[in-house]
Amino acid sequence: MERETRAPGAGRAVFHVPRPERAHADRIAALRQARLTAAPAHLPTEHEQAAFELGLVVALVLGAPCASRGLDLLVNARRIQPEGAEVFGALLYATGKEEAAEFWWRFAAGSGSGTAAYCLHLHHLKLGETDDADYWRAWSEQLSAAERQPGPRELLMTRPLLPEDVRRDILSRVHRGLAPQLPPALVAVIDRLPLQGGDEEEVPSPWELTSGATSACSWEPPWRLDGEEQG
């Protein structure tokens, strides 16, 4: 798949990074600086370390207070929002759709999301694709160093993107060295999303997905199995 973004420094405009993205950028910068000293001791290779770190970044993105608003803006706004594409990519990654996640992270990174660019760095590093990993790390660092809008910006609080038990489970899995995972109900919702793309590649589109749907999908189903007695 050809890149839709140009190499860092090739005439790119300076991005004004919105406040939610600044919060993510600060977290990601801290993770980079610390090199994730909390990583499980049984991760001996750089590829495994990158997979662990990517899982943790995905957990941060999905658990962020602005995640549901970002997804809804992606679906409902007239212009596609990079923050929403970043969140949608994280959801796809947590369902095992890594190529589709890469597609949406590329879109978000090309629109100014440093977090998405860093996800791409880790994704390619995990696959052993060092040239691509270096490209996206440089792009992430350029976005992080870009001029940012001064002054506070009101953050509208919305419902969490995922139920609390799902967010806890994702973090627990990541810290045990496992890949993020979503409940079957949410995986089924994402599997039913319409596809977009050409003959070579089709990826899920987010146009029928809302934060109301994602926040309703828990590991604890509200229904009873046939034959189960009422308490």
Report a brief summary of the structure.
By secondary structure, the chain is mainly alpha-helical.
What does this structure look like?
This protein has 231 residues and is mainly alpha-helical. It has one domain. 54% of the residues lie in helices and 3% in strands. The protein has a two-stranded antiparallel ribbon. Strand 1 and strand 2 form a beta hairpin. Helix 1 packs antiparallel against helix 2. The longest helix has 18 residues. It is globular, with a radius of gyration of 18 Å. The N terminus and C terminus are likely disordered.
Widest sheet: strand order? 1-2
Cα distance spanning the termini: 54 Å
Helical segment tally? 10
Briefly note the structural class of the backbone. Answer: mainly alpha
Radius of gyration: 18 Å
How big a fraction of the residues is strand?
Answer: under 5%
Query: How many domains in all?
Result: 1
Proportion in helices: 40-55%
H/E series, N to C? HHHHHHHHHEEH
User: Segments where pLDDT lies below 50 for 5+ residues?
Assistant: 1-21, 150-155, 223-231
Mean pLDDT: 78
Q: How would the global form be characterised?
A: globular
List the helices and strands and how they pair.
Layout (H helix, E strand, L loop, with lengths): L18 H16 L11 H18 L3 H10 L5 H13 L3 H13 L3 H13 L3 H16 L18 H12 L8 H8 L3 E3 L4 E3 L6 H5 L16
What descriptive keywords fit this protein?
disordered C terminus; mainly alpha; 231 residues; 10 helices; globular
